[in-house]
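Ticket #4471: complex job returned nothing on first submit. Input attached below:
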Amino acid sequence: MGQTEPVELVTIEDIEQAAARIRAFVLRTPLLPAPWAGDDERPLWIKPENLQSIGAFKVRGAFNAIGRLDESVRTRGVVAYSSGNHAQAVAYAAAVYAIPAHIVMPEETPAVKVAATRGHGARVVLCGAGQRERVAAEVVEETGGVLIPPFDHPDIIAGQGTIGLEIAEDLPTVDTVLVPVSGGGLASGIGTAVKALCPSARVIGVEPELAADTAQAFRVGHRVDWSIEDRNRTIADGLRSQPSELTFTHLQNVLDEVVTVTEDQIRSAVAELVFRAHLVAEPSGAVALAAYRAMDFPPGRTVVIVSGGNVEPALLREILAG
Amino acid sequence: MGQTEPVELVTIEDIEQAAARIRAFVLRTPLLPAPWAGDDERPLWIKPENLQSIGAFKVRGAFNAIGRLDESVRTRGVVAYSSGNHAQAVAYAAAVYAIPAHIVMPEETPAVKVAATRGHGARVVLCGAGQRERVAAEVVEETGGVLIPPFDHPDIIAGQGTIGLEIAEDLPTVDTVLVPVSGGGLASGIGTAVKALCPSARVIGVEPELAADTAQAFRVGHRVDWSIEDRNRTIADGLRSQPSELTFTHLQNVLDEVVTVTEDQIRSAVAELVFRAHLVAEPSGAVALAAYRAMDFPPGRTVVIVSGGNVEPALLREILAG
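Support reply: We reran it on our side without changes. The output follows.
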């Protein structure tokens, strides 16, 4: 009878060590009070990870994973596959460490993102649709570099968890944290930190209803697979991944529930962040505020994670045009 | 022979006391590294005052001025005249102190700004064009409230100066600080703090070339008066005031020079802040980045102040449409 290995959970100590490791490289984002939200029952704070210099939280995990490598291994370089913020994060962290980075990107990646990744000095390897994991494995083989996965690794989870550490430091009386869920690295890390330091706080995952595999998984008690065609329907292009066994186990352990938001709610949240918070969020970065506005959770001091700001100019124009 | 009283300059001790006074009420903004600027000779940091909960630095001066009042005086309330960020700042600070606020606004003020001011619980007194100082004096007479001027007061200068204190704390090796100039309270305060703590740093004022009275004043050595019709031509509606004797004396003391930027440069800087820094700035808040891009100053570690983010939605749409 096949038995799976028990998953070893990331601990608060792992996250505290990650915080010390990445401190010199990553912005310690402020927690922004948002009295303009106008909801006395749910006073709001924003954690603006879009202000990281590459525009997303992904630098935290990337710096922790690369910083953890033995120097003799690290100098061989790193490999990642991503068309999004993880590509930029690994390329940027590798540049800071002055090591080679090889980033595998699908051929259909927008030219501006390929150029941004190359701009950090990374080598970009273009590949056909659905080929990126295989091509990345080949690049690892050829170069001897270390694969830095986007979410399925304890060092990535611990790095993203430093956001939760900072929330607990800045607002120890927090009642609710709303966090986007895709591959689950961000929510696993934040949930682990918040539950350890503020045990009475709720941590709620947020998904687009068009990519709500984890919300469904929570209802049925095990991971479910949505087709990539289905997940690709959402405007929130950073939330089209699904948890791994490692992250799903964490999510079951630390999330109180997973809620969903509509595409219209996401668009409205992007516009609200622009005009009220003066922050530019990508759609994936705005889902937590969208859930806050849906108000489907108990009152109390509420924090929303704005996870990233790398929105396509044409899409932002369209959203702001209403 | 008429002699003017010598102006007493705000000191670094005044600014340090202001910092302690406002700490509980005002966001301690981070200094954001901006490697995306891509200029190795002038590495860039952004001081994002648009992240204050009312969207602008003006809360610093307002909280310092109101916090300095004797409690028996403060409870009578405060009076301000402004159609812009100072109105919101005084209304917000008065609400936090739970005292009455009477804000005199011109009849042509956009309804959204009147509503926002009332939203903080302030009483709005509308007045005819050019009447606001006279009407404010009447309101002071009627209510016994204290007038909180937008820039022409040492407590306002000291409050805005806390921004310079934070820059010196976060980047003691700063070489150049670029700061918008209008009435001059912000530049006076920041310049005083930076020159005291980082004496070798340059502090450069920035004006729209369509409202460049201070740039001209620096050339001729005394204040000059531009007509309000001329100053109203710039899109940067927060930069249409002129220094008072008090602020101009400070500016002469602490600014190395005053440079100007064109309307097109201002618009480009607003768009760059949106897409690269993920920050929404109003045109007045983007002039320092515009001056950075014009590169008319020596190399070195450079900080630009993004002073505010309260841009009209229609104007932001127009700017982003290019």
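Residues 12-56+153-320 of chain A form a domain with the Rossmann fold fold (CATH 3.40.50.1100). Closing as resolved unless it happens again.
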